[in-house]
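your task:
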Amino acid sequence: MRNATRWMPALVVAAGLALAGGAAAQKQPDPPPAAGGKGGPAASGQSQKQHLTPPPPIGQAPRPQPRQAQPAPTQPHQTQPRQAEPRQGQPGTGPQASQKLHLTPPPPIGQGPGPQPRQAQPVPPPQPQPRQAQPQQRPAQPGTGPQASQKLHLTPPSIPPDNRGPRPGSRTPNEREAQRQAPNPSWPAMPPRMDNEPAALATLRQLLSDDVQLGYGEARQEGEVLTLRDADLRRGAERILVEELILEAPSTEGLRRGEARNLSFEAPMAAVTLERLEIGGLAMLALRPGQEPRDREPDQVALENLRLSGLEVLEGNGTRVTLERFDLSGWRAGQAGRVGMQGLQVGLSGAPVDQVRVASASVEGHDIAALLTSAVRSETPSAPPPGRQAYRVEGVQVMRGDQSVAGMGRLVIEGETRADGFSGGRIAVSEVVVERTPETAVVLDVVGLDRLSMDLTIDASWTPENERLDVSAFAFGVRDLGALALGWSMEGVNIETPGGNPEAVRLLQAQLRYADQSLYERTLADQARRQNMTPAQVRDQHREIVTAALTGPAPDPGLDGLREALLRFVAGQAREVEIIARPPAPVTLDAAQAAMMQGPAATVALLGVRATAR
């Protein structure tokens, strides 16, 4: 993905560079830190009261506790007030509050703390709680006391350990793990082997690991083709049943062709069924010196094609996944491959939505073996092979019951890399839909729509000779509201080190086009309602602002044309505005920023701005 769309970072950089002048002028200094500093006493107290920030870091001195500075007396009438006063005067503070913060959830924001029944009862001196609180007052023993409980989020020290042993019927973690690995007692016994097993079956047993049992109802071999009926493979608590398994030329070096029909997989946490599995051209490539076969990596396997049909996965938590078809081809190191699927449905349990559907998805033009090997090694993927790379997703629907709450018509990401360093690509997202639901009603009411339908298109390319970045389209639109499109060309943009040398970046040309459908009229109505005005009065305000900002001391064709185009749009006489900048010579960022500081007239003259309204 990163290499297939390597032009994308440059696109983001170019957008940031184009806006650098305005952003620098508007940047304000960061506000000073709050009293106490991050993690200091003030921050620590706030964390205890609001439950919003983490407790102080381990090793930092806790907030002083003046009421705990003296040893706890043994008289009951003195012990109880020292523990009750902080709770009554300052809810959420003190050592006892610290111990409870990590056991029970905080009250809702704006709601006072609930009743504390333990505060109303005196604590008699024989109880171990006061004696356990005394070590918390020793500053010479870090890592103890209520503050240590806040830092480590451990069980409060006032709660004694439970020495009653396991409850009747409970199992230890080892016992639970053993149960997960134990064979299902309802499974029938493995059928006995044939007296004269086919030779290919003996080869198949050698390919399986030692802990896998293989059984079958019928086995026969014709030439190099081995056929098993009612194959049964077991390992611990996992079992695979195959109604018919066909293997052609199985060997330690690979498999020419394989097919499995009506396959089912059973495990403690999931069940899988598969109508058909087809595999072709499987080859086990040479191992590296000293490498064990079990350590074989994805780039040491080659596979011509793989197809799954009719897949269903049912997990223990109720999640159900079905897939009509999955295809993979061209798995070999250094070769571009393809992965695709059709008819994916994911049924969710306990989630805000019930089901996610994907009509189709595919990835092509990537070295699949290299990608998987990089993932296994946790390394950055290498550059894809020269040529085109593409990602496609179509027909996405997010369902809640029988209602579609969101969706996407199509997503296409295409990239091209060449040996000379040229790279280009395109992103197109169409028909991203957000339907009206209780969660989205507020947003839809603001814009006055029953649903949102959005499109996004980005087209860009980069040429290494002059480090030229061309963004022919950066367009975003919302149906029934409007669409905005940008485009620009720059030189001196190094996509390998974005932002490395901004002085070398030069603007060649730029273009902005906005087509309004109803957004401006809705904006006028909303602003008029909030300011207790009429839309016509708000329109007059906008006209005055444009006139004041774009009127120079003397006639200026460029500035006057820009002003008149915007005034036509404000007056409702035009629905589309296009602004084009074609400077006579390439413009550096420093020069553009200096012109903007001088005012609109200087900027328009430097960039060669022309505007039209339609």
Remarks:
- The longest helix spans residues 535-549.
- The mean pLDDT is 78.
